[in-house]
Amino acid sequence: AICGLFSQHRGMVERRRLLLIPAISLTIGSLQYSLEKGAAKAEFTDMPALRGKDYGKTKMSYPDYTETESGLQYKDLRVGEGPSPKKGETVVIDWDGYTIGYYGRIFEARNKTKGGSFEGGDKEFFKFKVGSGQVIPAFEEAMTGMRPGGVRRIIVPPDIGYPNNDLNKLGPKPTTFSGQRALDFVLRNQGLIDKTLLFDIELIRIIPSQ
């Protein structure tokens, strides 16, 4: 009788185990599908300024860019026409920015109709006086040789980016709260986040000094 009860109990345990295995497999399968779906979504998020380019980390050099003594790397996506801005003149620009050292997160969209939470709406174009120290060193240097109508892409190492990792001290500052939060997260993070930034700068026009 004892042997019979033991066999019956063992049979019940085995049936429960067999019923439990598909449930566990289904849960694991669902989790794996969710993770793969999320990874695919992140992997294939379209970042126009980064498309087709294997950008690396701080201090890396790229053969299709010109590198200056400061560490700034740049290339002209479109060459403008006319004279380049001089010290004391005010430049009117449009720009976009990406945290290329940290997953290529966009924090400012150029051309006001980009859409999404980083859209600047009807924002005015950004202006600054060349040589006045109103913008990060990389932006100041990027103006050298630019002409109205031109678009220049720059890779900015932290040394010539935002001083003390504070986006409020010098321009340009993202025009949306979402953009400010994304940039601020990277700049202020004390971990291993690479703070290399990428900007596309379009020189709209030059306002002569008064």
Write structural notes for this entry.
The termini are far apart. Helix content is 29%, strand content 20%. The chain is built from 3 helices and 7 strands. Strands 1, 2, 3, 4, 5, 6 and 7 form a 7-stranded antiparallel beta sheet that branches. With 210 residues, the protein is an alpha+beta fold. Its EC number is 5.2.1.8. GO terms for molecular function: peptidyl-prolyl cis-trans isomerase activity. It comes from Aegilops tauschii subsp. strangulata.
Write a compact overview of the structure shown.
The chain is α+β, with helices and mostly antiparallel strands and 210 residues long. Helices cover 29% and strands 20% of the residues.
Label this structure with key terms.
210 residues; alpha+beta; Chitinase A, domain 3; 2 domains; 7-stranded antiparallel β-sheet; globular
Q: Layout of SSEs?
A:
Elements lengths: L1 H42 L22 E2 L5 E6 L11 E10 L5 E4 L17 E4 L7 H6 L8 E6 L20 H12 L8 E11 L3
Antiparallel strand pairs: 1-2, 2-6, 3-4, 3-5, 3-7, 6-7
